[in-house]
Amino acid sequence: MQARCNTTALLASGYDIPLVGLGTWKSEPGRVTAAVKSALASGYRHIDCAAIYKNEDEVGNALAASIHQGVVRREDVFITSKLWNSDHSDRRVKAACLKSMRDLRVDYLDLYLIHWPVTGNRGPDVQPPLLETWKAMQDLVCQGLVRSIGVSNFSVSKMEGLMTAPGVPLSVCQVECHPYFRNDGVHAWCKQQGIHMTAYSPLGSADSASLLGRNAQMLLQNETLLSIANDLKRSPAEVLLQWGLRNGTSILPKSTSSERIKANLASLDWQLPQVAFEALNNLDYQRRMVDGSFWVNPAGPYSNLEELWK
Ligand code: A2P
C-alpha cells in the first residue's frame, strides 16, 4: 500500500501530485462523503473537486472525519478544487477559493484550476480576460492559500496566453483523455513545457453520454479493449486506467461504489504490455464526451466548438 501512495509526479511548482485521484464530478449528493472516506481508507491520496460539483462540503466532511480518525493526515492528501466561470474577475477569485477551502475544511489547497476558459459574457472576447484571472490565481499562491495552480479544458493557445505572465508557473492542465479522445496535441505540448497533464474521464465517461445526446460510442464496450482485457484477465476499466498511467498522465476515475473505488486504485499495481498500449493508441474513433457545446453562443466569445478548443 505504501508504494502506491508514493506513486506521484513532480509538478513545476515543486510539489508532487499522486497519480491516481478520486473524481467527484457527478457523484450524487448523499454518496460523496462515503465515497471519499472509502477512497482515503483504501489508500487514495488525491481527491479532485470543484465548486460547481456542489458537493465540496460533503468531501470536506469526509476529509475531516478521516483526519480525525487518524486514517490520513492533511499533509498526505492532495486536494484539488476549481474556480467556476462566474468567479473569474480578480475581485472574486480569492473569495471563491476561500469558499471552496471552507467547504472542504482545509486551510490550503494543493491545486486550484481555472475550470473553463469561459466566463459567460457575450461579445468578441472573453471578459474579464483570462490573463486577469490567471494573475489573481498566481496571487493565491503568493498568499499561501494554494500550492500549485493550473487550468482545465484549456487549449494550447489559451495556455500560451497565460504563460506570458511571469511568476508562479502553470503546473497542471486537466483535460478529457482516454483512448477515444487522446488529446495528443495538448499532451505533447504540455510535455514540452513541463506542464503535468491530468486525465479526467479516464474510463471514457460512460455517464456523460447524455451530454452528447447523439449516438456516442461507449469506450468500455470497445471490441479492441474487451479483447485486450480478456487476454490479460483484467477488467476493461483496469486496462483503461493502466493506459492512462502508461500514457504519462495522472488519472481521476470517478466512482461512488466502494468496490470500484478500491479496484481503480489497484491500476497502479501492474503494467499494460506495450503492444496492448499501442493497440489502444490507435483507435480511429476520436471524440470528446465533454465537448463544451454548452458554452457555444452565436454572440461569442465562442461562436462554435473550434473557437472554444483552438
Ligand atoms: P460508479 O460511480 O457507479 O462506479 P469516468 O471517470 O471516465 O467519468 O467514468 C465514471 C463512470 O464509470 C461512472 O459511471 C462510474 O460509475 C463508472 N465506473 C467507475 N469505476 C468503474 C469500474 N472500475 N468499472 C466500471 N465502471 C466504473
Automatic annotation (TrEMBL):
Pfam families membership: Aldo_ket_red
Superkingdom of origin organism: Eukaryota
Lineage start: Eukaryota, Viridiplantae, Chlorophyta, core chlorophytes, Trebouxiophyceae
SUPFAM superfamilies: NAD(P)-linked oxidoreductase
Protein name, entry field: NADP-dependent oxidoreductase domain-containing protein
All residue ranges annotated as the NADP-dependent oxidoreductase domain in the record: 21-282
Record: residues binding substrate: 115
Site note Lowers pKa of active site Tyr, residues: 82
Residue numbers annotated as active site: 53 (proton donor)
Record keywords, A-Z: Oxidoreductase
GO molecular function: oxidoreductase activity, acting on the CH-OH group of donors, NAD or NADP as acceptor
